[in-house]
Amino acid sequence: MIRSAPPTQRQELGDFARSVRERLLPSDIGLPPGGRRRTPGLRREEVAQLAGVSVTWYTWLEQGRDMSLSPQALARLARALRLGRAERAYMFELAAKRDPDQTESETDHVPPAMLTCVNFIASPAYVLDRSWTARGWNADAERLFLGWLDGPGDKNLLRYIFLHPMARSLIRDYDNRARRVVAEFRADVSAHVDDPQIIRLIDELSASSEPFRRYWHERVVLEREGGERTFDHPEDGFSCFEQVSFALSGHPELKLAMLVPAKHPETVGPVEDL
Description:
It is a single chain. The protein is α+β, with helices and mostly antiparallel strands. The chain has 2 domains: 94 residues, 434 Repressor (Amino-terminal Domain) (Orthogonal Bundle), CATH 1.10.260; 156 residues, Beta-Lactamase, CATH 3.30.450.180. The protein contains 13 helices and 5 strands. It has a 5-stranded antiparallel beta sheet with strand order 2-1-5-4-3. Strand 1 and strand 2 form a beta hairpin. The longest helix is centred in the first third of the chain and has 15 residues. It starts with 8 loop residues before the first helix and ends in a 13-residue tail after the last strand.
């Protein structure tokens, strides 16, 4: 039995757009019913006109071609296709672009139920936004991450690692972990490289931290993975955890990280990231 290759993100984006187009009725967009149509739903020409794009551009998008997709054109297409919130987020995720109509308050907002959940976790746990700024954490995380989560200062994880002196003494195998964190951050913000907030953060860290500048220009890209995390706390001493991370349903730019106590903390190997 010959199995077909799985669809690429561009192919899935094209199939998704076509599926939505075929479900729409002319009356949904204020057009008269007209005569019989050869295909269900709207015509490509009608969607292209509503979105302010060329018919060729929209046809190539449905065909899954490797083409330029600007966030502004995608936003107009989302409005033309009458996409709901979840559908719109799905389309931008497939296109690996940031929705230009999404405000910072929407992306930074942490649902109260999630904060309640974090407080019930019996180990260090925190929530990061797309710029890796902590938006919520529990008491165990506050106690562990001195200089980051225990006071009124800046809550960005990258600023803490590269600019706060406490990080170097707290985090074991600091140099290797710091390098990997930058590689993971590059992968994580690949869809937001034109975000002014991300640009400002990278520029600031590049100017203030020689190690960050060096690691960033290495252009190493790694997925953020779980694994062993070890710390030397000035009051609690050595601690060893296993990190587990989750994305929040409906809020893909928020990530929950939990540090679960390791079963055998006496066995310590090299660590990779925070």
